[in-house]
Design brief:
Elements: E1 6-17, E2 20-31, E3 35-39, H1 46-54, E4 63-71, E5 74-75, H2 83-89, E6 90-93, H3 104-115, H4 120-133, H5 137-140, H6 153-166, E7 171-175, H7 183-196, E8 201-205, H8 209-215, E9 218-224, E10 230-237, H9 238-243, H10 248-258
Parallel strand pairs: 3-8, 3-9, 6-7, 7-8
Antiparallel strand pairs: 1-2, 1-4, 4-5, 9-10
Helix pairs in contact: 3-4, 3-6, 4-6, 6-7
GO molecular function: ATP binding; ATP hydrolysis activity; phosphate transmembrane transporter activity
Organism: Komarekiella delphini-convector SJRDD-AB1
Protein name: Phosphate ABC transporter ATP-binding protein
Length: 259
């Protein structure tokens, strides 16, 4: 294996929503061009952690951050950070498709247009490339100017991925991207993740342990203590977490959900 390069480094993170402490002493590296899975019981803050990584958490409540979250060496919580640029570079896909009530084409073009004007020919190329990258072009190339809301659920989710890819992110955060999808649609999303892993750094939250073993290179297990404060209990290669975890709580969690 080539040398692993951290795309994101979380160092001694304490994170608060208003005055409520959510995370305590979280430190981990998210490696470039690797898939990292975030696992843990419902309500332990996995989705919130993703939003911490691109500061989308600040769109929900007042936050307080102690420690550092570095994106290729830059602390993203410095005041001078351009949040629009950060969120383009660290893009996010949500559990349910969150498409706009507009055409397929305009949905994918939305983020690109926010960056600045592009000639129509160039924009067309960007849109087609993003939809192809989401393995969706052959299915919807004749529906580009129809409402995106007419697509199937699986197609809508892949279109959300295409929209995220259109702005050329370096990191893709995926919060339960197969939630609510049938097995065939879920498999298409999984195949897409496999195809993207050589181009992007991917962080995925999922409750499916078989999916974790199929997709991820590294796994982080989050655990809430009796005070409902979440800590990173264990982090390592997915193989180690699933076959030789150090903490009995990690082993119990994995075993209960993979059997």
């Amino acid at each position: 294996m080539s040398k692993l390069i951290p795309a994101i480094r979380v160092k001694n993170l304490n994170f608060y929503y208003d005055t409520q402490k959510i995370f305590e002493s979280v430190s981990m590296d998210i490696y470039q061009n690797q898939v990292t899975a975030i696992i843990g019981s419902s309500g332990c803050g996995k989705s919130t952690f993703l939003k911490v990584l691109n500061r989308m958490s600040e769109l929900e409540k007042e936050v307080k951050v102690e420690g550092r979250v570095e994106f290729f060496g830059q602390n993203i919580y410095e005041r001078r950070v351009n949040l629009n640029r950060l969120r383009r570079q660290i893009s996010m896909v949500f559990p349910r498709p969150n498409l706009f009530p507009m055409s397929v084409y305009d949905n994918v073009a939305y983020g690109v247009k926010l960056v600045g004007w592009r000639p129509k020919v160039e924009l067309d190329e960007i849109i087609e490339s993003a939809i192809r990258s989401a393995d969706l072009w052959d299915e919807i190339k004749n529906k580009l100017h129809k409402s995106a809301l007419e697509l199937s659920g699986g197609q809508q989710q892949r279109l959300c991925i295409a929209r995220a890819l259109a702005v050329k992110p370096k990191v893709l955060l995926m919060d339960e991207p197969c939630s609510g999808l049938d097995p065939i649609a879920s498999m298409k999303i999984e195949n897409l993740i496999h195809n993207l892993r050589s181009e992007l750094t991917i962080v995925i939250v999922t409750h499916s342990m078989p999916q974790v073993t199929r997709l991820s290179d590294f796994t982080a297990f989050f655990y809430s203590n009796e005070n409902r404060v979440t800590q990173l209990l264990e982090f390592g290669t997915t193989n180690k977490i699933f076959t030789n975890a150090l903490d009995s709580r990690t082993r119990d969690y994995v075993l209960a959900r993979i059997s």
